[in-house]
Specification:
6-stranded antiparallel sheet; two-stranded antiparallel sheet; 8 helices; 36% helix; elongated
């Protein structure tokens, strides 16, 4: 009998622990959902005065508990988007800049409404094309291409680290160009006398290596958005292969997609 009571008590304890874990997991799920909604508001200037409503107001507006609201705000604080200031409340401390994926434009063209983009040319000159680069640019392996490494800033803050490969017959004409203040796209159209046509892109999240983190002034191992882009002239010739590492805490990607079946 005593053994049965012990077993019953142990069973009730296990049930209680399982229920507690289920509630905690549910609250974590709800906090992530709320953080996503608030993040959208933050990035869309939904709080124009820079201050979020009180926790109780957010709880009422979103049908959440105060604990869930606090947990959601903790997630946003960990992302560096908001901060809690005594006597003030939760304030927006960082912003992300929108980068469209449905139009082929250079960074300065894309972000012209948000400030001036400047380029620090760290490396520039002819270099043998690695096999994957040569294949993408349709040049023989080992052929020299123009290699450019640029740190791009918006309002003085590091935004992206761009590694660019251009066929040398076109790239040679860029050696004396004003790369510090001009998008490569504009220069390519100027020197070729032809319009750019289309680009193939791949976007993924990667962890910043030590070099990239140092250049971007980001924590080592921080997540960055890696955009690989192969741009073609209007006649189809590939002319610009880029590997662009964006600081994930300063840029957001967006686009307009149409369903096609």
């Amino acid at each position: 009998m005593a053994t049965d009571r012990i077993r019953d008590h142990a069973g009730q304890g296990a049930t209680t622990v399982a229920a507690h874990r289920a509630r905690r997991r549910l609250r974590a799920d709800q906090a992530r959902q709320l953080a996503d909604l608030l993040r959208h508001q933050l990035l869309g200037d939904g709080f124009p005065d820079g201050t979020l409503p009180h926790e109780s107001t957010l709880a009422t507006d979103y049908g959440a508990t105060r604990n869930t609201v606090r947990q959601a705000l903790d997630l946003l604080r960990a992302e560096g988007l908001v901060e809690r200031l005594p006597g003030v409340g939760t304030v927006v401390v960082a912003r992300k800049y929108p980068h469209g994926l449905d139009c082929l434009m250079g960074l300065a063209e894309t972000l012209h409404e948000h400030g001036r983009v400047t380029n620090e040319v760290r490396t520039m000159g002819p270099a043998p094309a690695p096999a994957p680069v040569a294949e993408r640019l349709h040049v023989p392996p080992g052929t020299d291409v123009l290699y450019i490494e640029r740190l791009r800033r918006l309002g003085g803050l590091p935004l992206s680290l761009d590694l660019t490969y251009i066929p040398l017959d076109i790239g040679t004409t860029l050696l004396g160009a004003d790369l510090e203040n001009t998008d490569v796209f504009r220069l390519l159209e100027a020197v070729t006398g032809r319009r750019l046509g289309h680009a193939e892109i791949t976007l993924e999240a990667v962890n910043a290596d030590a070099h990239s983190a140092a250049v971007l002034e980001a924590p080592r191992g921080a997540a960055v958005l890696m955009l690989e882009r192969l741009t073609h002239l209007a006649d189809g010739r590939p002319v610009d292969l880029e590997f662009i590492r964006f600081r994930g805490d300063r840029i957001t990607m967006s686009g307009l997609l149409h369903r096609s079946v």
